[in-house]
Amino acid sequence: MPPVVTGKLYGSSFTAKVILERYTKFGMNNYRPEDLFSIYIAGDGSKACSSPLSDFSIRLTVPKKIGTFSGNDTYILVNDPGDPSGQNGSLFSSEQTIIIISSITGDKVIGQVNVKWPEQNIDFKGHFEAYYCK
After folding, report:
1. pLDDT by residue (tens digit) across 42-81?
2. CA 131 to CA 31: how far, in whole Å?
3. Which of 74, 107, 110, 122 has the fewest CB atoms within 10 Å of its CB?
């Protein structure tokens, strides 16, 4: 299947153009930052590893291992597309959020995502290939 992530962010249509993995100093629950993937997704094809983190619409945080993760093993950050400053958004995890890591290679992580948060009109899913930022 070709890598594509689509859906709605706060009710606005969204299609991923850039998906990359970038280290951040974000730890959660029993996970240290070095044990997590931070997968950044942007609808703007001009975004790259050097772009500010606030330029990305979605951040998926998931353990650095193959498996299916939900609830407290994931953290999703979705920026509000109506806020160009990138300051407003939602940070959440839930049992309805599923991230699957199916392959980890020397240059990318491959998987699937399915996120639903009806109260915020957030619903996106698809397959991703996130190349590591060096």
Report:
1. 999 999 999 998 889 999 999 999 999 998 899 999 988 7
2. 22
3. 107
- CA distances (Å), 36 to each of 6, 108, 121, 126, in order? 23, 14, 27, 20
User: Do residues 71 and 98 lie in contact, with contact meaning Cβ atoms separated by under 8 Å?
Assistant: no
Residue 94 Ramachandran class (φ > 0 left, ψ -120 to 50 alpha, else beta): beta
CA separation for the pair 23, 50 (Å, rounded): 12
pTM for this structure? 0.90
3 state DSSP class of 73: helix
- Round to whole Å and give the CA distance between 109 and 63: 11
